[in-house]
Amino acid sequence: MPVLPEPAATVEKVDTSYLETLMGYNARRAALRVIDLFSRRMAVYELRPVDFSVLSLIGHNPGITSRQLCSALNILPPNLVGKISSMEKRALLARKPHPQDRRAVGLHLTELGIELMSDAERIALDLESEATSRLSAAEKKTLMRLLQKIYL
Amino acid sequence: MPVLPEPAATVEKVDTSYLETLMGYNARRAALRVIDLFSRRMAVYELRPVDFSVLSLIGHNPGITSRQLCSALNILPPNLVGKISSMEKRALLARKPHPQDRRAVGLHLTELGIELMSDAERIALDLESEATSRLSAAEKKTLMRLLQKIYL
DNA sequence: TATTGTTATACTCTATAACTATA
DNA sequence: TATAGTTATAGAGTATAACAATA
To answer: For a surface tag, which of A78, A93, B8, B130 has the fewest beta carbons within 10 Å of its beta carbon?
Structure first.
């Protein structure tokens, strides 16, 4: 009977089953997948995911302040400043004096901003259904609801 | 009859309902929530989420190569080099010559690495159940399955 | 020729401290 | 004294190009 050589430690197929039991791992991988697709599709509009969220919230909440945006989107004020001024330079949004508080600034979409977001929201809808193409309508609804139970 | 002044555009409560219809938004917010918790709990071990994934895959796949790690975790080779050498300096992992391919390096956990990951995986389990405390066991299982249908 | 691992490097994202003007 | 917005800056994450050694 021949003596088999000690098998060398090599990995044929990587076993990821443990990581796949962790919610953090699954949520991160899924989020990155959708966001990568989003970034590629929105590149023509030069809108990153957070830019899109900011413009969308301004569009649906005319007069919203920077502070309110930061709270709603969980971003820090210093990191919003550059985005706002950049999008103001692109004439996508306008800053107006806040009627009650002279420290604050009310944010509004311009006509150009409204048009761009109209296109962008249509693109977003397409890319979302592409990213979730393997889920049924009921599964999508369930997934959204369960995700919101985590972060809301 | 008094003429009411034109109401100023101020936002009382921010309406986020549109964003909450987007999978990308929900997945990103939920992932960031779990990962923030993870980062804070793992700070004592100086393990970031990706470091944990790397050590975990090495632990469950002794002899795995950098290239295999990059493919499995969707990270780029140049961004793994620093992590590997840093964790080698901390004596958490060892690099051994690959038995068949002299270009490659097989990665293995040290005794110290095994002990640290044993603790870390226990912490991870705790923090995961904290992050998903509002979900039933069945909901957790469903959520994992649906997330995997997006990225796997 | 193609692949593994690596260096250098640039760009983006995120975080903290400190300032100003208003409340 | 506290808050809205801002500046400066440091650190972490992510991307591409190019190289040496080996397949």
So the answer is: A78
pTM over 0.70: yes
Nearest protein residue to nucleotide C14, judged by CA and C1' positions = A79
- For B31, the closest of A21, A31, A124 (CB atoms) is A31
Judged by CB atoms closer than 8 Å, whether chains meet at A143 and B143 is answered as yes
- The reply to whether B144 touches chain A by the CB within 8 Å rule is yes
Do residues A84 and A105 make contact, with C-beta atoms less than 8 angstroms apart? no
Domain with residues B19-151, CATH architecture: Orthogonal Bundle (1.10)
CATH of domain A20-151: 1.10.10.10
Residue-wise pLDDT tens digits, A104-145: 999 999 999 999 999 999 999 999 999 999 999 999 999 999
- B77 CB neighbours strand C below 7 A: yes
Write out the H or E segment, with its range, that includes residue B108.
strand B105-109
Domain ranges of chain B: 19-151
Q: Tokens representing A98?
A: 């806040």
